[in-house]
Design goal:
Blueprint (H helix, E strand, L loop, with lengths): L1 H14 L14 E6 L15 H20 L4 E7 L15 H4 L10 H11 L3 E7 L2 E4 H7 L4 H4 L4 E4 L2 E4 L4 H17 L4 E5 L13 H7 L5 H23 L4 E4 L18 H4 L4 H7 L4 E2 L2 E2 L7 H9 L5 E2 L2 E2 L13 H13 L4 E4 L2 H5 L5 H9 L21 E7 L4 E6 L8 E8 L12 E6 L3 E4 L10 E8 L8 E2 L8
Parallel strand pairs: 1-2, 1-13, 2-3, 3-7, 7-8, 8-9, 9-11, 10-12, 12-13
Antiparallel strand pairs: 4-6, 5-6, 14-15, 15-18, 16-17, 16-19, 19-20
Length: 492
């Protein structure tokens, strides 16, 4: 079976988007992974307590990103706000303990800025993953002292089951979260903001918000009032983000089952009724660009609920999160085939991509998952689709090509393009066939160049393609027509 699949994969690599054997590699597909900074579960394992620690931390992250690039991933969801603490210098919340071993201590560099720059160098998007409503355990809050939101904004915080949460029923919660989001989007070149735990906690029925409901409920059914509270926060944060940078993608990671369906019961664990997430409404209202539903289920607790999300996407992107941590024998008894079947199913229903929780299990190649993706499913690069509901106008095509043939390799240079909405970057394509087909992802050499020049240095002379092209891409993903970048000797 593995030999046959390897042969098919090699044929498909040559054919690119061909549907040989009923299977193809899409040019547009979101391939995402969550990198958890909580307790350094994925990163960092080293503490930034000096120059060596800083360098070690940076090297660790670069190694993770290099491996992801090797497997043709294009999106990183980096945990930026953990539980009322953050990985960047903030006016609102302290540095997380995960960076230095000490709450609030400056690590000596800006991890978020560094991560963004390194992702973009590798042609990957970075989405700042924000844990939204939880703000820490009792012990964590105590360790932060006056830096904690519980001390600074006690009126918007609730203690529940030995942990602290922001109170979704209090409108001042919106203002607090909007300040954090505005801080990130205005100061950092993030490609997206991903909201996690933007919901009430487990066993939400007992959440201690009687006083808030009495003040703000206005006679509403309490269950619907809670759903409306979460939707109100989502709308405010969406509007805050888009007012600063319309091209920044707004997403969240809701519970994997939206609600009971006509096909199957959710067995009492769903987004809509249990934790008051009306995530399908967010798509309908246009206040979300992507959903990464946490589809950490098997068999009929996976497939029918994925279809429910896809059938109600309202023209936005559904990128199911796959629970690859269940491949760890200490966690569950899943096999690699559980994930493989889910991947085939998602490609078959033309889902907008896949996300993986979490990076350590991926890069540890748990039950061969990394090899599976690199050798079969992600053999060819893919790029994030264009976000046409925000903007559908492509940038101007680059002009004034300058092609320089080096002793080994080529140097390309061109005049910068302009766009109606956002900054632009460039994609490099190459092929031995003329003209270069930019619809074939096998021809993609580099997905994101932010300069107006590019040098290609092959390891061996025969790895150098004959024909080249460059396109301009805006931050919504719209791509220009190609500019041919060819040596005169190679033109037909």
């Amino acid at each position: 079976m593995h030999i046959l699949r390897k042969i098919i994969s090699c044929l498909l690599f040559v054919l690119g988007t061909s549907s040989a054997f009923g299977y193809s590699f899409p040019k547009h597909e979101i391939r995402a992974v969550w990198i958890t900074t909580l307790d350094g579960l994925d990163w960092p394992t080293a503490q930034a307590t000096g120059k060596k620690g800083i360098e070690k931390q940076k090297q660790e992250l670069c190694h993770i990103l290099d491996r992801l690039k090797q497997a043709n991933f294009n999106t990183v969801l980096l945990q930026t706000r953990i539980r009322g603490d953050v990985i960047y210098p903030s006016l609102y919340e302290p540095y997380t303990t995960s960076l230095t071993g000490e709450t609030g201590k400056n690590p000596g560099y800006d991890p978020l800025r560094f991560a963004i720059e390194e992702c973009h160098k590798r042609g990957m998007e970075l989405h700042a993953w924000i844990v939204t409503i939880p703000v820490g355990s009792v012990q964590q809050i105590k360790s932060r002292g006056t830096k904690s939101v519980v001390r600074k904004k006690p009126s918007i915080c609730k203690l529940y089951q030995k942990a602290w949460y922001l109170d979704p029923g209090n409108p001042q919660t919106d203002d607090y979260l909007a300040g954090i989001v505005r801080e990130i989007v205005s100061q950092y070149d993030v490609d997206g903001i991903n909201f996690d735990y933007i919901r009430y906690p487990e066993q939400a029925e007992k959440f201690p918000d009687k006083d808030t409901y009495a003040q703000y409920g206005r006679g509403k059914n309490k269950h619907q009032w809670r759903r409306d509270n979460i939707t109100r926060i989502v709308q405010r944060l969406h509007n805050e983000i888009k007012s600063v940078k319309p091209w920044v993608k707004v997403s969240s990671s809701p519970i994997g089952k939206y609600n009971d369906t006509n096909r199957y019961s959710s067995h009492g664990w769903n987004a809509y009724k249990t934790v008051y997430q009306d995530a399908q409404q967010w798509l309908e209202m246009g206040i979300h660009d992507i959903l990464f539903p946490m589809m950490y289920f098997q068999d009929n607790q996976f497939y029918p609920f994925v279809l429910d999300w896809k059938e109600n996407d309202n023209g936005k992107w559904i990128v199911p999160g796959l629970g690859i941590y269940f491949l760890n024998h200490k966690t569950a008894n899943w096999t690699i085939n559980d994930i493989v079947r889910q991947l085939y199913f998602l490609r078959n229903i033309q889902a907008d991509g896949q996300a993986y929780f979490r990076s350590r299990f991926l890069l540890d190649n748990t039950q061969g998952i990394f090899d599976e993706l690199q050798s079969y499913f992600y053999l060819i690069p893919a790029v994030v689709p264009p976000m046409t509901w925000t903007d559908s106008i492509a940038p101007a095509t680059p002009t004034e090509p300058v092609f320089t043939s080096l002793e080994r390799g080529v140097h390309l240079q061109w005049k910068a393009s302009s766009d109606n909405l956002s900054p632009v970057y460039y994609r490099i394509y190459a092929s031995d066939a003329y003209p270069v087909n930019i619809d074939n992802p096998a021809n993609l050499i580099h997905a994101r160049i932010e300069d107006t020049q590019y040098t290609f240095l092959p390891e061996f002379p025969w790895q150098e393609p004959f024909y080249w092209a460059v396109t301009a891409v805006d931050r919504c993903g719209n791509e220009s027509l190609p500019l041919e970048m060819n040596h005169p000797l190679f033109l037909k």
